[in-house]
Amino acid sequence: MQIEVLKSKIHRVSVTQADLDYIGSVTIDENLMEAANLIENEKVDIFNYNNGERFSTYVIKGERGSGVICLNGPASLKVSVGHQVIIVSYASMDFELAKTHKPTVIFPDTKTNSLR
């Protein structure tokens, strides 16, 4: 049996940009992507800590060290610059393996979106 488990989590980062006129996705600073074990085009769920919105999109690599968290396209309507969001991804794995799986969870500085 395969189950879905938490793979990666960026816990509470601040939205730095929201761009409606982009085709869609979330742009994430490459440093944060690497630290959280996320790759470009990976599906993620985003939870808005300020208003409770929850939605899915995919990752685009942002400039390394920029602190960028930019919601693009329709997702930009679910956030405001300065909102804090949680970004998560999941993995499908065997039930027994999932019992010992340890997700990657990072806690960036919410003012700069840099690693502490």
Description of the structure:
By secondary structure, this protein is mostly beta strands. Strand 4 and strand 5 (54-62) form a beta hairpin. The longest helix is centred in the first third of the chain and has 7 residues, at 30-36. Helices cover 9% and strands 47% of the residues. The protein is globular, with a radius of gyration of 14 Å. The chain has an eight-stranded mixed beta sheet with strand order 2-6-3-5-4-7-1-8. It is built from two helices and eight strands.
Characteristics:
single chain, 116 residues, mainly beta, Barwin-like endoglucanases, eight-stranded mixed sheet, 8 strands, globular
How big is the Rg? 14 Å
Major sheet:
8 strands, mixed
CATH architectural label: Beta Barrel
Provide the succession of SSEs.
EEEHEEEEHE
Shape estimate: globular
Beta-strand percentage? over 45%
CATH topology: Barwin-like endoglucanases
Helix content: under 10%
Termini Cα gap? 38 Å
Counted beta strands: 8
Structural class: mainly beta
Number of domains: 1
Mean pLDDT: 97
Side-by-side strand order of the widest sheet: 2-6-3-5-4-7-1-8
Q: According to CATH, what is the class?
A: Mainly Beta
**Which residues form runs of ≥5 with pLDDT under 50?**
none
Query: Count of helices?
Result: 2
